[in-house]
């Protein structure tokens, strides 16, 4: 019988401390021409263990199931996750479908003991919505995230 030892992946980068950090990290993914759903798997210090593409949809939607969202988080031993998807149409505001899946994912995460720190929507222009903050932010300026921001609340 072979015994496989669990391999721990080293986290990369600094801790995720705000939606701004995630939006900047996922800027390129926000430019996709169809909706894509990503999960950032985080360790107990909220450092990224892995960035995973969970689903690719059409220009207007994508199908996301909690089983796929949490599968890798369980395998990696993630303490927390952050979900992110893009809106190719350029509007960062969440749809009713977005809010419905977020609620379902939050419920499943609670059962599994895996925290969901935030759900984000990113657009090709760099505008993003953070469910945690309950508002949309527009990133302006250069591509390294050093520009100013304007906020728009729900």
Textual characterization of the structure:
The chain has helices spanning 19-25, 66-76, 96-112; strands at 36-42, 48-56, 80-86, 115-122, 128-130, 135-139, 149-153. With 154 residues, the protein is of the alpha+beta class. It has a single domain (19-137), classed as Cytidine Deaminase, domain 2 (3-Layer(aba) Sandwich). A seven-stranded mixed β-sheet has the order 2-1-3-4-5-6-7, with helices on both faces. The protein starts with 18 loop residues before the first helix and ends with a strand. Mean pLDDT is 88; it is low at 141-148.
Based on DSSP secondary structure assignment, what is the total number of beta strands? 7
Strand sequence of the main sheet, in spatial order?
A: 2-1-3-4-5-6-7
Number of domains: 1
Q: Any idea what the CATH superfamily is called?
A: Cytidine Deaminase, domain 2
Q: What string gives the helices and strands in order? A: HEEHEHEEEE
Largest sheet: 7 strands, mixed
Q: In angstroms, what separates the terminal alpha carbons? A: 57 Å
Strand content: 25-35%
Shape designation: globular
User: Which assembly state applies to the chains in this document?
Assistant: single chain
User: Level of helix content?
Assistant: 10-25%
Supply the CATH architecture.
3-Layer(aba) Sandwich
| Count of individual helical segments | 3
- Structural category is alpha+beta
Radius of gyration (Å):
16 Å
The parts where pLDDT drops under 50 for at least 5 residues are 141-148
CATH class: Alpha Beta
Overall average residue pLDDT: 88
What do we call the CATH topology?
Answer: Cytidine Deaminase, domain 2
């Amino acid at each position: 019988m072979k015994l496989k030892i669990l391999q721990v992946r080293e986290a990369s980068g600094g801790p995720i401390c705000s939606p701004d950090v995630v939006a900047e990290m996922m800027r390129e993914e926000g430019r996709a021409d169809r909706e894509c759903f990503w999960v950032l798997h985080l360790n107990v210090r909220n450092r990224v263990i892995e960035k995973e593409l969970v689903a690719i949809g059409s220009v207007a939607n994508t199908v996301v199931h909690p089983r796929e969202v949490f599968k890798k988080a369980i395998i990696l031993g993630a303490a927390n996750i952050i979900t992110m998807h893009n809106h190719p149409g350029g509007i960062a505001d969440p749809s009713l479908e977005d809010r419905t899946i977020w609620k379902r994912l939050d419920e499943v995460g609670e059962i599994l003991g895996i925290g969901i720190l935030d759900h984000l929507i990113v657009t090709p222009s760099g505008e993003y919505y953070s469910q945690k903050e309950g508002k949309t932010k527009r990133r302006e300026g250069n591509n390294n995230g050093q520009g100013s921001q304007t906020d728009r609340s729900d």
